[in-house]
Amino acid sequence: MAPIDQFMVAIEAVIAGDMDMTECLAGELGMSNFISIKDRQPTDAELEMVAPCLVGISGTSSPAVGAGLETSTSGPLSWPDDVGVSHFGHISSGVDGGPGGWRRPHPGPFIWGEIEREPGRYSWRQTDRVVSKMQDDRVGIISTIWPFADWDQYSCHANEPKYPAMLGELGDSLYPPCDMDAYGAWVQATVERYDGDGIDDMPGLAYPIRHWEVANEPEMQGPESMSFFQGDPTSYLELLKATSSAIRAADHEASVLLGGQAGMFGFMVDYWIPVLEGASGLFDIGNIHSISSDDSFFSGQYRNFLDAFDYSTTPFWVTEAEIGAMPGSSRSEDELAQLAFTGSVISFLYGAEVVVIAGAAYGRPRVSQAIRDAWEAVVDAVGVFDAVTPLSSTSARFDMPDGSTVYALWNGAVLPSEVTGLVRVVRYDGLEASVDTATIDAASASLPIFVMVSQS
User: Fold this and answer.
1) Which of 55, 153, 180, 277 has the fewest CB atoms found within 10 Å of its own CB?
2) What is the structure's pLDDT at 68?
3) pTM, two decimal places
4) Distant-in-sequence contacts of 52-55, Cβ < 8 A, 24+ apart
5) Which CATH number fits the domain 88-384, given the four candidates 3.20.20.80, 3.90.650.10, 3.40.50.2300, 2.60.40.10?
6) How far is Cα 413 from Cα 319, in angstroms, rounded to an integer?
7) Are 379 and 341 in contact (CB under 8 A)?
């Protein structure tokens, strides 16, 4: 179907009252152009601007209001070799770039009430648009499932206290679903649309979405703190059971992530203990966050926490690692930037499979340029590695896919004696040089450095 014909179908949908299409076209064109374009032919430039809104439109008549786009029956799709190979990712709105091979859109488009605005009527335009943009960048997608829909919340929580959510898209009623069957049906339909099995898939889906996170930081509850969920550990465990079951019913290859634990402080640990006690078999990947709070991104503490509840074989990801100064800290920006190096290396040594960078996405960075430069240097140096081995308390060896080796040295560590000859040294801030190993001593590694040794 030609773009101009797709555009005419989209305009028919707007006239029929399709708010998703209205919001998409107005957002891409600007309100004044959107108002005028309904009564004239669009230019080629305008058609290019609205292309994300037209993804998947086919046929000769407008989609039913709220029905979303037609679904594809092509496939199945396999996971590509070039996607998700990096051990780093970043948080963003989903459509802007950043270092690493994974992206965690936050809050992301997978909000129950944004897709199912009325019971039984799904609209996929916004989710398809965000997924398409991320897949254009060839990144693995970590999708957060938010279990809130106003029509559902107010059916049994109307009289419960309301709190302003940290993320306005979620609304102010953040309790467990009232109609768990309806919620499960939505989760299953959502995973089905993006699993790439060739049945009811998103039109134009390039590869599957395989990683689904069940809510976010459920222990963070208002009004005195950031609010992401209003339910006790038992409520979250029931949510995890229902969500995990629905995900696996749609895609047996999917991985279920716990909603990121906000940190390892006392009330956070207390919340998660009863969850972990009852969550065996319900998740595939543990999930920890560190927002300007721990030099090793809580990786060691969280590994021990999982192990204590018999999850020693369960991997974990750090899905929020933001570097910043704690209140009262006297650390310089340069000292903070070094944490991108040491925090990442230590996290991998404790078994973290992926580190997701927070606050450094290209679109709206919150952290300093020095910290962003350090993240870039670290991702470039060891983003794609096969194995990591501790050498001392302040050094490690990374084995790379091409047979080369990267040594991470900090706090005065030295190279193993068998490493000799000319090597490339990259400092945590990206400064690099070719040097002879004889010149690399404890003083050289007083600041964090990577030493790249080519395959012999």
Assistant:
1) 277
2) 44
3) 0.86
4) 52/24, 52/28, 52/129, 52/132, 52/133, 53/10, 53/21, 53/24, 53/25, 53/28, 53/125, 53/129, 54/3, 54/6, 54/7, 54/10, 55/128, 55/129, 55/132, 55/203, 55/204
5) 3.20.20.80
6) 29
7) no
Q: Which token pair is 51?
A: 């292309």
Strand order in the sheet with 102-105: 255-258, 211-214, 140-145, 102-105, 88-92, 352-357, 316-322, 286-291
Bond into 274 cis (ω within 30): no
Q: Other CB atoms closer than 10 Å to residue 308's CB: what's the count?
A: 11
pLDDT in tens, 11-46: 777 766 677 788 788 778 777 777 777 667 788 778
Count of CB atoms situated within 10 Å of the CB of 278: 14
The domain spans of the chain are: 3-54, 88-384, 395-453
What is the C-alpha to C-alpha distance for residues 125 and 67, in angstroms, rounded to an integer? Answer: 9
- pLDDT tens for each residue of 172-228: 999 999 999 999 999 999 999 999 999 999 999 999 999 999 999 999 987 666 789
Q: What is the pLDDT of residues 100-121, one digit of tens each?
A: 999 999 999 999 999 999 999 9
Rounded to 5 degrees, what angle do the CA atoms 302, 102, 94 make? Answer: 110
Determine the angle formed by the axes of helices 333-349 and 369-382, rounding to 10 degrees: 30
